[in-house]
Amino acid sequence: MVLTIDIGNTTIGIGGFQGNKLLFIEKLSSRRPLSDAGYIEKLNMILNKHGLSAEAFEGSMISSVVPSVTAVFSSALETFLGRKPLILSHKLDLGYEICTEFPEKVGCDRLADIAGAISRYSLPFVTIDLGTATTFNVLDENRRFLGGLILPGVGTAHRALLGKTAQLPKGDIHMPAHTIGANTQECITGGMLLGNACAIDGLIRRIQTELGQKATVVATGGYATTVIPHCETKIHIDQNLLMKGLRSIYENNTSTGSPD
Ligand SMILES: Nc1ncnc2c1ncn2[C@@H]1O[C@H](COP(=O)(O)OP(=O)(O)O)[C@@H](O)[C@H]1O
Ligand SMILES: CC(C)(COP(=O)(O)O)[C@@H](O)C(=O)NCCC(=O)O
Ligand SMILES: [K+]
C-alpha cells in the first residue's frame, strides 16, 4: 500500500492506495501547520479509523505547493513509515514532457493533476484545478505539457471582494437561482459561480483555438462540484485526480511499485 499526500494552500489531502484502488482520502487544514509530532498523531488517527497500520505501507509520495509544510510533513512520514517519502518534482519520470519555460517553477499539484489524467482521458486534454487558485494545465496530443493559466480561486476571489468592500454581505455561495440577481446576495452568488463558469467556458474555447483542435477537459479541486455544473463545455469531474496522479508517479519511479 502507498500513502499519497497533497499539500495545497488550503487543504492537506491524505490518500491510501492498494494497487490502483483508492482505499480512503482524508483532509486536514494546511492553514494551521502542525509540528511533525502533530502530523504523526493525525496519520495514526487516520490509519486507525480505516483499520490499517503503518507497517502495511511500503512508501509514500508528497506533492506540495507549500514549502514550509513540505519539510515538516516529510519528516513526520519518515518517522511514521520508517522510510523517506518520495517528493514530487519536475525531475521525476512523470510520463510526459514539461515544455514550459521554467519546469522547476511549475506547481507540483499541476504536475500531479496531469499525471492523474494521462492514462484515463484522451489527449489532448486540459485539467482544471479549482482550489485556493484555479489552474488550467494543457497537455497536447504528443504528451507535451505546454502550460496553462492561473486565476484566483473561487473562495479567494470571494474573500477578496468582501474584504475590499464596505457594504457587501457575508454569505454562502451556492446555487444561483438565475443570472440576473434580484438582491445583493444573489448578485454575488451569480457573479462568483456563473462568472467562474463562463470564464472556464471562454478560456477552454481559446485554448482549443490555440491548440487547433478539441481537447478533453477534466476538473478537480474543492470548488469543482460547485462551479463545473454551470459550464456549457462538457467537463469531466474527477475529485481524486491528483491522488491518482501521485500513485502513478510513485509506481513509475520506484522499483517495488505494482503496475496499473
Ligand atoms: N466538497 C466541497 N464543496 C464545496 N467546496 C469545497 C468542498 N471541499 C472544499 N471546498 C472548498 O474548496 C477550497 C479548497 O479547495 P482545495 O482544492 O482543497 O484547495 P487547495 O488544493 O488549494 O488546498 C476551500 O475553500 C473549501 O471551502
Ligand atoms: C498556482 C498554485 C498557487 C495553486 O495552488 P493551490 O490552489 O492548489 O493551493 C500552485 O500550483 C503554485 O504555487 N504554483 C507555482 C507557480 C506555477 O505553477 O507556475
Ligand atoms: K490543488
Describe the structure.
It is a single chain. The chain is an alpha/beta fold. α1 crosses α2. The longest helix has 28 residues. The structure holds adenosine-5'-diphosphate, the ligand CC(C)(COP(=O)(O)O)[C@@H](O)C(=O)NCCC(=O)O and potassium ion. It is found in: Cytoplasm. Its main location: cytoplasm. Homodimer.
Nearest-integer average pLDDT? 96
Q: What's the β-strand tally?
A: 11
Return residue spans where pLDDT drops below 50 for at least 5 consecutive residues: none
Roughly how many Å apart are the termini? 13 Å
Largest sheet: 6 strands, mixed
Ligands, deduplicated: adenosine-5'-diphosphate, the ligand CC(C)(COP(=O)(O)O)[C@@H](O)C(=O)NCCC(=O)O, potassium ion
The portion of residues forming beta strands comes to 15-25%
Using only CA atoms, what is the Rg?
A: 19 Å
Alpha-beta content class: alpha/beta
**Order of helical and strand elements:** EEEHEHEEHEEEHHEHEH
Count of discrete alpha- or pi-helical segments spanning 4 or more residues: 7
Instruction: State the helicity in percent bands.
Output: 25-40%
* Shape field: globular
Strand order of the largest sheet: 6-9-8-7-10-11
EC number: 2.7.1.33
GO cellular component, one term: cytoplasm
Organism: Waltera acetigignens
Binding site for ATP: 6-13, 132
